[in-house]
Amino acid sequence: MRNNLKKLKLKFYNSYLLVSAYLDSIFLKTSQKRLMRFHVRRSDELLILGTGPSLKSLNVDVLKHVDSLSVNGYARLVAEKKWPETDLYMVQDLEVFRRLKGDIENLKTSKVFLSHLIRILFKNNMNFSRKPSIFRHHLLNHAYVESYENLNVRVSAIPQCIVYDGYTVIFSAIQMAVALGYSRVYLLGVDANYSNNVNQRNIIDIGKRDHTFASAGERISFGIRALVAAYPDLSIYNSSSVSALTFLEYSNTVSGHEISS
Asked: Which CATH number is 2-258's, of 3.40.50, 2.40.128, 3.90.1480, 3.30.200?
């Protein structure tokens, strides 16, 4: 009963996002200008960093030369392991934000993309030194489920106004890359294969357990394939030698700089 009520609330919330995104799209150029003020591209290339095991091979020097976007547990790598900050950082999951809130708030130079739902639920309990950019994150029917049987994703035609869920924050990050005007995206730490050993699934453990991890790799691949089909003008490269995203062209260099060693 409680789960059904949550799903009903989710439907209303998703409908609200669609209406507000439609109204925003009427003034699409204004939304684009707002994003461009938030972040000015250095080039057409963006390095997106997941937190899979292959992230350990990152050549951190590359972050000095190319635009970069990190997600989720990367904020803890900055806080505890003194990793360099990326230009952009994105988080959309409520539990991830709850567990990493202090680390995310302590990011000094990264410009933070925060989902609209996080802003609503934590609006009176956030302390950012720099105002984050809020993005509408439409969850489809992916929340409050015990398993994923019939996979479905939707790719936004107006990511400046709304992005859709694709089972991973990386799916949202790639839509945001399109909104920001990037034409080439490189993925490292997006391995799309999950070990049965919980300690080997991500480069850093934030204490969040996904009981649907067995299908996570399949879902990530499904979503990335949908992005490739939906954005023909966007080139997506796999920069992990151990990734299951073998349908993507492999590239270990961006702007002439080695991504991983």
From this structure: 3.90.1480
